[in-house]
Amino acid sequence: MSLKKFALTTLLATCLIAPAFAQRDTVALSTIITKTVNYITNFPIEKVYLHLDKPYYAAGDTIWFKAYVSLDKHQPSNLSNIVYIDIAGQDSIMKLVKLPVINGVAHGNIILSPDTYKQGNYHLRAYTNWMRNFETDYYYNKTITIGNAIQTQVNTSITFNRTAGQPKVSATITYTQPGEVLANKKVNWSITNPTGDELSKGKGTTDVNGVLNVVLTETAVASLKTATLTTNLELPGKKETLKKFLLTAAAADRDVQFFPEGGELTLGVRSKIAFKAIGTNGLGVNIKGTITDNVGAVIANLESSHMGMGIFALMPEDGKTYKANVTFGDGVTTTYEMPRIKPAGITLSVYNTDADNINIKLSANDPYFKANQGKIYYVAAQNGGAIYFAAKTALETLTYSAAIPKNKFPTGLIQLTLFSDRGIALAERIVFIKRNNALNLTIAPDRKTFSVRQKVKFAVSAKNNAIPAEGEFSVAVIDETKVPVDEDSETTIMSNLLLTSDIKGYIEKPNYYFVSKDPNVDANLDILMLTQGYRRISYRNIITGKFPQIFLTPEQQGLEVSGILRNNTGMPISKGNLRIQIPAKNYYAETVADMSGNFKFSKLTYPDSAQVIISARNNPNSKSMMISVTGDSYQPATKNTNALDEVANIDSTYKNLMLNSKRQYDNLHILKEVVIKSTSLVKKATHSDYGTLSALPMMSDQQIPGERFKDCPNLYVCLPTMLLGVSAENNALYFTKNISNQNKLPLQVFLNGSPVDYQTLNGYRGNDVETIEVFKSDGLSNINKNYMSDGIISIITRKIKTDKITFAQLQEMLPKGNLLSYNAQGYSIPREFYSPKYDPLKSGTFGGDLRSTIFWSPKIKTDKTGLTSFEYFNSDSKGSYRAVIEGMDTEGNLGRYIFRYTIK
Strand, helix or coil at 473? Predict the structure, then answer.
């Protein structure tokens, strides 16, 4: 694969001692540096950040976003020209947005239709094709909570109760309606796993307070982390209210984890030990306690300082063992054993309190020093694969200290690694460097007092130090009375690109470390560094030459359509002529297949669901030719790394937004659609209508109505994202649980009872679908044996009433192998944010403008003067408004600024 070469920071390796020891090197320091530079040159790290208009939403809202695609030191990426944004519900993609990236940015929106987005927590992701080669933890991952006050007439709250020392877990659910509790109502409930299998079920009745208690069975308890509790509440008139609750919060036990600095405790070496305590909800909780040795003597005291995290020091002594005696905030006490102690070793300690330097200390105990005296050791400090500092020293004393100037490093995470002379990583420590060099980004209004429906104009200024900065920015203004914001929990361009995008694992309230006025914030950030791990770069793999497997190249040519030209016997046609037509863009182009029949059209631009026509008719014997198109490969739904941000009690947590959403909906005066049903029953189409499928089980494992696919432009693309536990690979569908099995068998697809290839679905849209059924077993049909498959998908399309047609018309309707027409997924067309304009000379009825997002613009650009402006009108709501601007300049410097004002 050929990649562009990206400019990396020119690095200077500074020796801690004289280079006289170089002749003893087994692996030269220059080798470590060179291999690391080569690695990051061939495998550059790309990131995507989304600036959203607000942190949570109501059904009926629109998610407005701007994507910032960066490379190297947060500079606008020139690697990928396409970015993907998707939103997933329970393990299925609800919406996929594909956008062109221009100068490192793109913008778009996702409409949250009340019919589609039920109340719950969703997983929003953003990534490029290149990023899909690496772990999904490094995508932009965010939990989006959506309340649905339009369809949800019943409000709920849930709490979980666990008996100490016992596995039994119970859930307490409270049901209410505006102005009343729902007492003495029948409730049916069930617990299912992600594939839809039922783990347990039951029924009950709410008490006089509208409360239902559900005791989870042992089977359900064992699967709590991934299970969902669904309840059906019966209301008068036989109406049912469906409510779903993720049981993740009920799964976790309280726990305390210990993290010795550098990775391990060493006998006789005093070390810092960080700890993190989590409660039964998986979030940090405060603890106090003591560290005692095996004779009961108190060696150290411990107390958490932030989010359950804290630190203490310990020097392990020979012949002693240690344990932590911990008391949680609710009085529960537990004892934990300390991590194992190495009898011989060397450690790396870092002190990050100096404003100008990072102070490092190497400490060896006597056995290790005697065995390794005089040997060479290396220290390297890197971020994103760029080594900003490298040095070597000889082990001549038990301890060695040195200071590294912080001006060598950019703001962000730095991984410090201690190597042996063989290049083996012995200890690792990550630190966070705060250079206080963010853009000086401000917005200032043209007035000091504000009123409803008033025009407001803001002046924007961006400076890098005192120099005007040219850059890309986005602005969101929200009514904070309707959308209260916890700033510590926000996802911002600073917290994401500088912190969470580089660390695997969940970080609670990441923005605290950037906005808090807590005098201990930097000390707490350093404790966080001790409890987390940097895993983007593995020195072991770099030194041994073990590189990531690349299966997707960066999309630098815009949209592409590729495939293969064959004859009707399946043999490739070399040097065949092909022509592409995109009517929506009035676009035509021609190409010639290679010797293997492969063809490609590049640098295309067309909107979503655009018709693409490919013809091979300009060839001798064209009637015997067939065209097949390589379908796009899409990322299936993945685990949400920020699942702990999910909100269980949406109705009460976001009460202000839910009430406002209901008021907005009621103000529209929309009459609900009345459907007049025929008195005669219409039998729904099922697999049993087709003889080839009649021997399948009567009940399918999944049945999805066609309405779920109504927004799908291409069934080939949407099908694997809409089916539970099904993934696409190499133009075939498989059950996800079998995807890593080398001997896996695909699912066989049937279209209206006839077997078809998965690629056949390229020519169908979601609107064509009547119903889809998935079968894990083939029953008595022998289909799996006959088709060498493992599972069946039955797709039944809608029946279209037509008049009688002639034979000639029928011939014309039959698909031609040398002409392929299908609806392709192109670029999503972003909507423009509607910002009303009010005439101050005209009086009107006030109170109707209830917007929660007052203004959104992803097109804020400063020129060489570092200046620009934007304007909008306030809504009818009084209270506190919050304007946020963020973005980056052309050099990759990040900036964010918040301005609040009050409307009286």
Answer: strand
- Residue 224's Cα: distance from chain center in Å? 22
Q: DSSP strand E in 320-405: where?
A: 322-328, 333-337, 341-342, 346-351, 357-364, 376-383, 386-394, 399-405
Which pLDDT tens digit goes with each residue over 505-553? 899 999 999 999 999 999 999 999 999 876 778 888 888 888 888 989 9
* DSSP three-state, residue 368: helix
CB-CB neighbours of 739 under 10 Å: 13
Decide: 57 and 87 in contact? Cβ < 8 Å: no
Cβ contacts of 53 within 8 Å, gap of 6 or more = 63, 64, 65, 476, 478, 853, 856
d(CA 133, CA 536): 13
Using alpha carbons, select from 426, 425, 424 the residue that is nearest to residue 264.
426
Of the pLDDT bands very low, low, confident and very high (cuts 50, 70, 90), residue 91 is low
What tokens appear for 709 in the block?
């696919």
> In one letter, which amino acid is 553?
T
Percent of the chain predicted with pLDDT > 70: 89
- And the tokens for 321? 């063992």
The CATH classification of domain 255-342, taken from the options 3.30.450.20, 2.60.40.1930, 2.30.42.10, 3.20.20.70: 2.60.40.1930
Q: Helices (H) and strands (E) in the chain — how many of each?
A: 13, 55
Note the pLDDT of residue 166: 56
Residues 55-82: tens digit of each pLDDT = 999 998 999 999 999 998 889 999 999 9
In one-letter notation, the amino acid at residue 594 is D
Q: How far is CA 777 from the centre of its chain?
A: 33
| Dmax (CA) of the chain | 98
Is-contact 846 629, C-beta < 8 A?
A: no
Which of these ranges, 155-164, 167-176, 809-818, has the smallest mean pLDDT? 809-818
Q: Do domains 155-249 and 255-342 have the same CATH topology?
A: yes
Amino acid type, 512? Y
Q: What is the pLDDT of residue 628?
A: 86
Residue with tokens 């500092």: 389
What is the C-alpha separation between 156 and 654, in angstroms, rounded?
Answer: 12
Average pLDDT score, the chain: 86
Q: Which residue has the tokens 């912190």?
A: 499
Which tokens hold the place of 72?
Answer: 């190297």
> Mind listing the pLDDT tens digit for each residue in 676-692?
444 444 556 788 778 77
Distance CA 239, CA 235 (A): 5
- Strand-strand pairing, 853-862 and 748-751: unpaired
Q: CA end-to-end span of the chain, whole Å? A: 61
* CB 795, CB 769: distance < 8 Å: yes
Q: Which residues pair with 325 in a beta bridge?
A: 290, 335
Q: Delimit the domains of the chain by residue range.
A: 155-249, 255-342, 559-629, 700-798
Which of 2.170.130.10, 1.10.10.60, 2.40.37.10, 2.30.40.10 would CATH assign to domain 700-798? Answer: 2.170.130.10
Closest CA to 722 of 746, 740, 745, 706: 706
Amino acid symbol at 205: T
**DSSP code per residue over 690-743:** SGGGTTS-SS-SEEEEGGGGTT-S-HHHHHHHHSTTEEEETTEEEEGGGTT-TT
**pLDDT of the residue at 116:** 83
CATH 2.60.40.1940 fits 155-249, yes or no: yes
Which position has the token pair 């499928």?
693
